């Protein structure tokens, strides 16, 4: 496909460069079917989607997001309209959707994996906890991906359980000689999952215990222990609860001196706010 070839070329151009950059994709709307539902650790539920539309899905890098579309409060499923290379979402009323990271995409298998954090009161979480194989779902996106070259000396990753799917995908796709640090906050060892990082990337699990999600400073304290040798270029990526990232952002920007072209800090969620998403 012409669109796929053009996207791949744009991705390759950034990969060959010196800095990370977001590459836009044609935004699709896929009708998919639930194939499998499998627990991953104590806090994640992996849903595998399939169907012919998976072949039209664009996926090139670990940091990609899609929107799952749900019926509104009145039970009516409203879908965005295709508009050129994008989607028109309307506003009267707007389709109900929730954003999630792509965990795995396989054109060969015709499958797409998304890991859901299971928690009470969440629209998507409650759907994931009760859905059965054969259920139809509509998925929009991804609108693009942040492409990170392999040319940095070190990589610093930090996030809570909501960032774990993207971090796991990134770690397993890194060149095996990559070096750096990965800090992951979870409730306890029961929420840890198997990872496949390069030998040179130190992975540290941070257990917050009885503290509520989005209330600890564990990520900030862990990141502040990082010491970067003089002269080494670092790419920093952090995601999770927006408030908990303030101190992380300050350390990355001011103490490590890493600017926006060499980092991405994304608030995936915010306590008390529905469907929050804010990139730095």
TrEMBL record:
<dbReference type="InterPro" id="IPR013113">
    <property type="entry name" value="SIP_FAD-bd"/>
</dbReference>
<dbReference type="GO" id="GO:0016491">
    <property type="term" value="F:oxidoreductase activity"/>
</dbReference>
<dbReference type="Pfam" id="PF04954">
    <property type="entry name" value="SIP"/>
</dbReference>
<dbReference type="InterPro" id="IPR017927">
    <property type="entry name" value="FAD-bd_FR_type"/>
</dbReference>
<dbReference type="InterPro" id="IPR039261">
    <property type="entry name" value="FNR_nucleotide-bd"/>
</dbReference>
<feature type="domain" description="FAD-binding FR-type">
    <location>
        <begin position="27"/>
        <end position="149"/>
    </location>
</feature>
<protein>
    <submittedName>
        <fullName>NADPH-dependent ferric siderophore reductase</fullName>
    </submittedName>
</protein>
<dbReference type="Pfam" id="PF08021">
    <property type="entry name" value="FAD_binding_9"/>
</dbReference>
<dbReference type="InterPro" id="IPR007037">
    <property type="entry name" value="SIP_rossman_dom"/>
</dbReference>
<dbReference type="InterPro" id="IPR039374">
    <property type="entry name" value="SIP_fam"/>
</dbReference>
<dbReference type="InterPro" id="IPR017938">
    <property type="entry name" value="Riboflavin_synthase-like_b-brl"/>
</dbReference>
